[in-house]
Amino acid sequence: MSFLTLMLKNPFRNHPPNGDVYVMNEQENIIEIHDLKKSYDKGKIKALNGINLEIKKGEFISIMGPSGSGKSTLLNMIGALDKADEGSIMVSGIDLMTAKDLNKFRSKEIGFVFQMHNLIPNLSVVENVEIPMYETNLSSKEMRERALELLELMNFTNLNDIIKQDPTKLSGGERQRVAIARALVNHPSIILADEPTGALDSKTGDNILKLLKDLHVKENVTLILVTHEPYVAHMADRILDVLDGKITEE
Hints:
alpha/beta, globular, six-stranded mixed β-sheet, 9 helices
């Protein structure tokens, strides 16, 4: 089954936490950030120091910069994993500075892919993929069907065996494919990928990048990827360089 078939079953929409349906056209900004600031350790560490950024629906953005530059902090703000001290940030029509139900927002709008997979070792592969759907109204049967549909698209050669395994028995590339399937289960409008190939060999990393780029191209999902690798960054529509908590070049 193709990504297109899956999305036709449940077309792309934005779902604000209040339950209203907000349909965004392709020319609108899906992300708008103005003068965003975030500090830690009582202001001693300025992670974000006045970020201004607009991203349109369906763009593929890469973010580069040295360690400690603010790349991951920016990603965390967009994904509502952390909250800024000052400024404004709108994602999928939601004001993240004032929104209350951020768990529901993350579940419906954001798919996360991390460098270290963040799979739960005492759950099977298919159970890991089901986790984001716990915030939905799907039945257990529907959750299992959706998880299996996504895993089938991840090009596993031995899928029937894989789904029953715990993640510790999988290779790095297999774990990352499971993480991508998990990121897609709720039809997110935005995929946030933080160094998704950083722990993989080059061949496996290239396969993971191809999966992510295919998703972006075929389904018009906004893809934001943090990387240290220039060749990875240049796959994107735009490259943002971040230094000392600011976007220094675009």
